[in-house]
Amino acid sequence: MPLDFTAIDFETANSSSASACAVGLTRVRDGRVVASEGWLIKPPTGHDRFFELNIGIHGIRAENVEGAADWTTQLADLTAFVGDDVLVAHNAGFDMTVLRRACEVTDAACPPYRYMCSLQVSRKTYQLASYRLPLVAAAAGFLDFAHHDATADALACAHIMIDAAHRAGAQDIVELAMLLGLRVPRIPVPAAASTAVEAVAAA
Predict the structure, then answer these.
(1) 117: which residues sit within 8 A by CB, 6+ positions away?
(2) What are phi and psi of 110, to 5 degrees?
(3) Between the chain's N and C termini, which has fewer beta carbons within 10 Å?
(4) Model confidence over 171-181: pLDDT tens digits?
């Protein structure tokens, strides 16, 4: 199998995991970046206040997302870009929680993507004083990007995974996980949705 995956990065408006205000996506095919996109998101109602702390990190303000698509609307574009790929993110627990929680608060069906964490991969691959995204990306040969710009962060994440796979001699994401002793888990389906699926299957 080829080294195919999609790297993803979310920025949030506040401390709520559901407050997605930007997403960046990078598609990798056969170990090469073939597409990169990103867009602003209007956070879900009730999770749409912009904290100064978050603004200080990514520079996105409430007025910047006034004309942006809301979570449910943009989710179709996100899933169209990702397709059936394994998702990769730096500190994937954060990004997968944003995806899951934003879907929960908007009653949207969260795709049960499989995913892998480039932070875990980097700790198995490089000897660094810190495993923050810019430092790991530099070790992978990807320099001088706009950290906390979601599109740039997703691209940096993709380059880390490509370099790590090359160093490990892995042909695909699953083999890379196996060689490094890591898992490729799946975003859990909410209990209610899981019960509904089981009921349909039993009918």
Answers:
(1) 88, 89, 90, 91, 92, 93, 182
(2) -85, 120
(3) C
(4) 999 999 999 99
Q: What are phi and psi of 114, to 5 degrees?
A: -80, 150
Single-letter amino acid code for the residue at 135: L
Q: How many CB atoms lie within 10 A of CB 73?
A: 13
pLDDT of the residue at 192: 54
Rounded (10°) angle between helices 173-180 and 150-168: 70
Structural domains for the chain? 5-202 (3.30.420.10)
Q: Is 180 exposed, middle or buried (0-12, 13-18, 19+ CB in 10 A)?
A: middle
Q: What is the pTM of this model?
A: 0.92
Q: Which of 90, 152, 151 is nearest to 117 (CA)?
A: 90
C-alpha closest to that of 82 among 169, 174, 4, 142: 4
